């Protein structure tokens, strides 16, 4: 299986960003080991027969038949990632508990995420072959500070404040917010203390087409006005976005960039709900989109939000290829093809 650029591991391989990342890695000549969760006894390939059917969208990717292999991996199971990581030159860590609604306790989610991540990093050290780990973080780790709107510019030096995340007034649960913050900090600290190169990519709302069978939650949020999902409108009052292909390519860029260090924000666009409404109304007039009355007050420009700076990533040489139109066009076309719209 070893050929081309070497073998890398992608954790959480069935996810929106992870599956697109796998596609791009295969296109670039990498051999990929993707880890997936398994709720029953795995077979000799590490996954159940039922899961194999669900993974057809990955197995059909160009190059997958020869250079993609699936492995079982659970954040709660100590050592479950060892086999997938052994012999790899790099690891892209995207697996994380997705408790955005607060269904589990903050302490439980944080413990699972941190212990699972540290277990993966320890496996990387034991492998003696992994030269860098790229951790996929979230913009929630930088945006929740002093009421979120106090800072003019947010960059890699900014960390969300735990107290703000726990105040109960946020649209995302403290379980998810706190777990992402503490897990990223723990990963970076582990790398520094143990001589392992660990870099993190801070991603905002990722939008665009998708190869996974279900509509990703970030795409659902971005298309809430089309789907008529009023419960998601609040997410779009002010949104930071990036195209899925830019997100995946940025992860690969950080793995390949010789001087990568620390954190990198990857946000190409900042839009308001009204701007999304205008874009969709102009590009898709036949859909007869209306602006909800309760959100009309956000159109006057009085609300101020922090700028999310991607300057460090851009200065390193990365270039965004897609605009907001491509994000929405790709997402909408994909949803139509899959029967969601």
TrEMBL record:
The keyword Oxidoreductase is annotated on this UniProt entry: yes
InterPro entries named in the record: Epimerase_deHydtase (IPR001509), NAD(P)-bd_dom_sf (IPR036291), NAD(P)_dehydrat-like (IPR050425)
Pfam family, one: Epimerase
GO MF term (any one): oxidoreductase activity, acting on the CH-OH group of donors, NAD or NADP as acceptor
Swiss-Prot/TrEMBL keywords: NADP, Oxidoreductase
Span of domain NAD-dependent epimerase/dehydratase: 8-258
PANTHER family in the record: NAD DEPENDENT EPIMERASE/DEHYDRATASE, PROTEIN BRI1-5 ENHANCED 1
Family statement drawn from the similarity comment of this UniProt entry: Belongs to the NAD(P)-dependent epimerase/dehydratase family. Dihydroflavonol-4-reductase subfamily.
Protein name, as recorded: NAD-dependent epimerase/dehydratase domain-containing protein
């Amino acid at each position: 299986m070893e050929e081309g650029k070497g073998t890398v591991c992608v954790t959480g391989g069935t996810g929106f960003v992870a599956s697109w990342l796998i596609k791009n890695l295969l296109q670039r000549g990498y051999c990929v080991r993707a880890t997936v969760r398994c709720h029953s006894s795995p077979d000799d390939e590490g996954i159940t027969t039922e899961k194999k059917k669900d993974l057809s969208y990955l197995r059909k990717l160009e190059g997958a038949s020869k250079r993609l292999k699936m492995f079982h991996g659970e954040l709660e199971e100590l050592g479950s990632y060892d086999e997938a990581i052994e012999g790899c030159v790099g690891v892209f860590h995207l697996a994380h508990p997705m408790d955005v609604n607060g269904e589990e306790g903050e302490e439980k989610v944080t413990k699972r995420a941190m212990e699972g991540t540290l277990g993966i990093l320890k496996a990387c050290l034991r492998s003696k072959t992994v030269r860098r780990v790229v951790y996929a973080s979230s913009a929630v780790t930088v945006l929740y500070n002093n009421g979120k709107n106090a800072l003019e510019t947010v960059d890699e030096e900014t960390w969300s404040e735990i107290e703000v995340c726990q105040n109960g007034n946020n649209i995302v649960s403290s379980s998810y917010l706190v777990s992402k913050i503490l897990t990223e900090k723990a990963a970076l600290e582990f790398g520094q203390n143990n001589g392992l190169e660990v870099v993190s990519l801070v991603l905002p709302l990722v939008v665009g087409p998708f190869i996974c069978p279900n509509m990703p939650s970030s795409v659902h949020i971005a298309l809430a006005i089309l789907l008529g999902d009023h419960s998601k409108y609040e997410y779009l009052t002010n949104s930071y976005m990036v195209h899925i292909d830019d997100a995946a390519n940025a992860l690969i860029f950080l793995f390949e960039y010789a001087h990568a260090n620390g954190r990198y924000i990857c946000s190409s666009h900042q839009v308001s709900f009204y701007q999304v409404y205008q874009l969709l109304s102009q590009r898709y007039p036949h859909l007869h989109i209306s602006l909800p009355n309760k959100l009309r007050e956000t159109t006057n420009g009085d609300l101020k939000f922090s700028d999310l700076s991607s300057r460090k990533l851009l200065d390193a040489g990365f270039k965004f290829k897609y605009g907001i139109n491509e994000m929405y066009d790709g997402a909408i076309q994909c949803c139509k093809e899959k029967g969601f719209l």
